[in-house]
Every structure is written in structure tokens, then in C-alpha cells.
Amino acid sequence: MESMARGGTRWKRFAVVMVPSVAATAAIGVAVGQGAVAASFTMSGQQFKVTAKQLDGTGFMQYGAVDAQHGGQKVPVAVSAFKRAEITNMCQSVVMPVPIFGDVTMRLSAGTGSTPIEAKNIYIDLDQLKADATFRDINIGVAAGDSNKGPGVKKGDNTDPGSFAQEAASATLSDVKQTAWATSAGTFKLPNLSLKVEKGKNECY
Q: What is the pLDDT of residues 101-159, one digit of tens each?
């Protein structure tokens, strides 16, 4: 179903990177809102925050990995994965400090109406999670490469297939707050998508 930035970002580079991505995300948002496409995406390179009122997922697995970030930085993460998930009232925010200009926040929300977000084969590389959680038919201590309930270890993940993992047939997480380094999904349907870019810090929590 969670944040931030490197201080060396230059304003010109920020503008070159942000303007096309904002335009592309807005175009995807319009198409998704009209039911035209299921957006596939990946986001990494800096921490971001995510909140959700509830996540209902089937085919859950979680294992440890190391994310290699831009510039060579390596970050230990817990990868939470679901074959399918429905998410209600999701907020995602990232803050980028821009020299001279100051902090800039990109904030996305979706699933705020009666229709939840739908995701397939979703992977979240997180380093902090707070939630009320219920797991059903759980198996703790399975090897990451042997899990058969979840979608399997993500291709390219820096992890040992024989390392500790856990899996469950289904899971429900409520009042979710998390910080993460990357999120990817095979398909991601975002009803009621809203994207805002503004000066200052306006994080999800």
C-alpha cells in the first residue's frame, strides 16, 4: 500500500525531471479516472510517506532485501507484496529540498470515494510501518524463494532466496502509516486521483 530527498538537487534538474513526470502522472490520472487504463508504475530513489485508511489484500508475502539507490546508496528494506489488494483513502507524499527555492512537496491521493484502489502484484519496499493488522492462514519462517501464497520474490531484488520470510493467504491493514523507498505494481487503478505540487512541506503525516 509510504518519503524524501537529497540536498544536492539543482533547480534546473528539478524542473526538467518534475514537469514531464507531473504531466505524465496527470494524464494517467485522467485516463484512470475515466476507466481507460490500469497504470503500472515504479517509484524509487528517495524516501516517501504513504497513509491509507485500509488495505485488504490476498496472496501476501514479506521478506528482507537491500535497495540500491541512485548514487550507490544501499538501503535495507522489508518488501511487502500482495497478489491483489484493495486500498481505500490513500495518500502518498514526497518532499524535495530545492536550493534557494526551498522545500517542494508532491502529494498524490486516490481511492477517497466509494471505489477503492485496485492493485495487482504490488511490491512495497519499506523501512517503517504502523498499522492495525490481521493476517489469515499465516506461515512465519518460510524461505523467501519457497513462498507460494504471495506473488514471489520480485525480479532483480537483492535478497537471498533462502532467507527468512513470512506469508499469508490474506491480510487486512487499517490506519496505515509507512515510509518506503520504492513501490511497484503490475497494474494500479487509481479512482479519484488527485496530484498536487506545492512549495513547502505538506506530507501525508
A: 899 898 999 999 999 999 999 999 999 999 999 999 999 999 999 999 999 999 889 99
Beta strands at 164-189 and 194-199: parallel, antiparallel or unpaired? unpaired
- Phi/psi at 160 (nearest 5 deg)? -90, 120
Q: Which cell goes with 10?
A: 539543482
**Burial category of 104 from C-beta neighbours within 10 Å (exposed 0-12, middle 13-18, buried 19 and up):** buried
Nearest-angstrom CA–CA distance, 193 and 155: 28
Rounded-to-integer distance, Cα 136 and Cα 107, Å: 32
pTM of the model: 0.80
> What are 134-141's contacts with CB under 8 Å, separation 24+?
134/171, 134/172, 134/173, 135/60, 135/168, 135/170, 135/171, 136/168, 136/169, 136/170, 136/171, 137/168, 137/169, 137/170, 138/166, 138/167, 138/168, 138/169, 139/166, 139/167, 139/168, 140/166, 141/165, 141/166
